[in-house]
Predict the structure.
Amino acid sequence: MSRLYKSFKIAVAAVFLNMIAHNHERSSGSEIPKIENNRLLESIPVTTVNDLIDNIEKVADSGDITAVVHAMAVLDYIPESPLDTKKKSGEQHWDIKLVKTPKVIGIIRKLMPDAYCVGFKLEAGVADEQLIEKAGILLQSYNLDLVIANDLDRVSETRHEAIFVGKENRILKHLHTKTEIAENIAEIIVERFK
């Protein structure tokens, strides 16, 4: 792959991360970034975990991927037998059997083994030590390059604490806003491929 082409792909990732940071700084939760009339970015809406996996496979088949930032929270469980129609409201009890979904980060890593891969780990109500330990498990389990560890209790409209955890559970950065997080991810990726 030519250096120019690789640089272009990294620049696209940086533009995307920067766009998310600045357009969604006041967001209190996950929102779909609005990507309109932008030749560099493509938004692929997904509804189900299977939609997500199918689209990841298509992207992986489309060519050499230099870096992946998997920031999407994916359901850990889904109904074993989804309903095709509305459930009647008159019943007093409803048993739902849930089944575990595949780990999407594992699928990404399998399909794109040479890509620089960034994952996210979200917990709630844990100390930094536990958060770093859980990020390290994710790093090792899926051979990731970087994990952004967050505690839901430290996320608000104006603050979003995150710990950047690298190989061997090294703490690379401790940041406090979505803008800082997105800009630092972009900087790390760009620096990696200079």
About this structure: The domain at 3-44+113-192 is CATH 3.40.50.10300 (Rossmann fold). Residues 1-30 have pLDDT under 50 and may be disordered. The CA atoms of residues 105 and 128 lie 23 Å apart. The chain is about 35% helix and 20% strand.
